[in-house]
Amino acid sequence: MRPVAHVLVTRQLPFPALDRLGIAHDLDVWPERLPPPPDELQRRAADAEGILSLLSDRIDEPLMAAAPELRAISNYAVGYDNIDLAAAAARGIRVGNTPDVLTDATADLAFALLLAVARKLPEAQRDVRAGNWLTWEPAHPLGQEVHGSTLGIIGYGRIGRAVAKRAEGFDMTVIHTGTPRAPGLSLEELLERSDFVSIHAPLTPETHHLIDAAALAGMRPSAILINTARGPLVDQQALIAALEHGTIAGAGLDVTDPEPVPADDPLLAAPNLIVLPHIGSATHTARGRMADMAVENLLAGLEGQPMPHQVTDDSQ
Ligand code: GLV
Ligand code: GLV
Q1: All structural domains of the chain with their residue ranges
Q2: Going by CATH, does the domain composed of 6-101+284-311 fall within 3.40.50.720?
Q3: Which helix (H) or strand (E) holds 252?
Q4: What CATH number does the domain located at 103-275 have?
Q5: CA 267 to centroid of ligand 1, rounded, Å
Q6: Any residues with CB less than 8 A from the CB of 13 and at least 6 apart, and which?
Q7: Distance 102 CA to ligand 2 centre (A)
Q8: Whose CA is nearest to atom 5 of ligand 1?
Q9: How far apart are alpha carbons 83 and 45 in whole angstroms?
Q10: Radius of gyration of the chain (CA)
Q11: Catalytic status, residue 166
Q12: Which of the residues 17, 101, 117, 249 has an alpha carbon 20 to 30 A from that of 27?
């Protein structure tokens, strides 16, 4: 018989995979809707051998130092910027993520945002509900043509390529910045040429505020920015200013900095902006498959085996 391990699960995950984990191991499931506060997370991690974490949980060096038994961290996300990988590697703790299974859901959402901002769907919907649909209007609300336009993709990994595939159906010209191993256009050239810019890069120290005031100034005044990756890739203050001054025409964000964005944040008063609450992977299919993968990763890590989807310091 395999020894039973003590596992901290930082949120309730209503998927069958969790039952499998619960049969094999002893689970401590955080029961609340909001994440455990950092000190509570650290307290509960103290005797954990495994953690199933969410992107809203910071799994840092002090937490690992306070959890001497910890040997497996399984993040219920493809991104893992919430985890200190170097600290984990130094302690021989395996870290896993959930790539691939959310690629299409996230690419769909990026495209939904692109279309919704381009064609001013929120404004049009508001008009209908406010009794402001007076007649068929020749020139209101006028949006941007998506078909045949140029889409610039920043970060041409799994999700970036899936967005490119969708763009083909709209006869868009797709340009991209490539990957670290196969670089494409420079960011400057991409921003200059794109009607739409969609971000699909991981958040690292190098990509923090990749889209800053200078980058926004290098975009077309008619351009629309889409971010479904991580909020801090964009300098949010610079984006607010760019939307207010018409430096760019609009933006669609599924991610913000911080998350959640406070209801009174100036971001929400900026014009031509759609903000969604980080729902890129939020389909029944993707979230269920992420749970399967996160549990497989954790089970392998607890057994001292390589995880099926294990991340390393240089795998971003
Ligand atoms: C979501 O943002 C993820 O990284 O899975
Ligand atoms: C980003 O996470 C990607 O896979 O492209």
Answers
A1: 6-101+284-311, 103-275
A2: yes
A3: strand 250-253
A4: 3.40.50.720
A5: 22
A6: 52, 76, 291, 294
A7: 10
A8: 77
A9: 14
A10: 21
A11: no
A12: 101
Question: What type of residue is 253?
Answer: L
Give the ligand whose atoms come closest to the C-alpha of residue 155.
Answer: 2
* Cis previous bond, 180, omega within 30: no
248-281, pLDDT tens digit by residue?
Answer: 999 999 999 999 999 999 999 999 999 999 999 9
Annotated catalytic residue: which of 44, 71, 176, 230?
230
With a 6 A CB cut-off, is 280 part of the ligand 1 pocket?
A: yes
Q: Strands across the sheet with 173-176, in order?
A: 173-176, 150-154, 196-199, 224-227, 250-253, 273-275
Order of all β-strands in the sheet with 26-29: 26-29, 6-9, 50-53, 72-75, 94-96
Whether residue 202 has its Cβ less than 6 Å from ligand 1: no
Q: How do residues 30-80 score in pLDDT, each as one tens digit?
A: 999 999 999 999 999 999 999 999 999 999 999 999 999 999 999 999 999
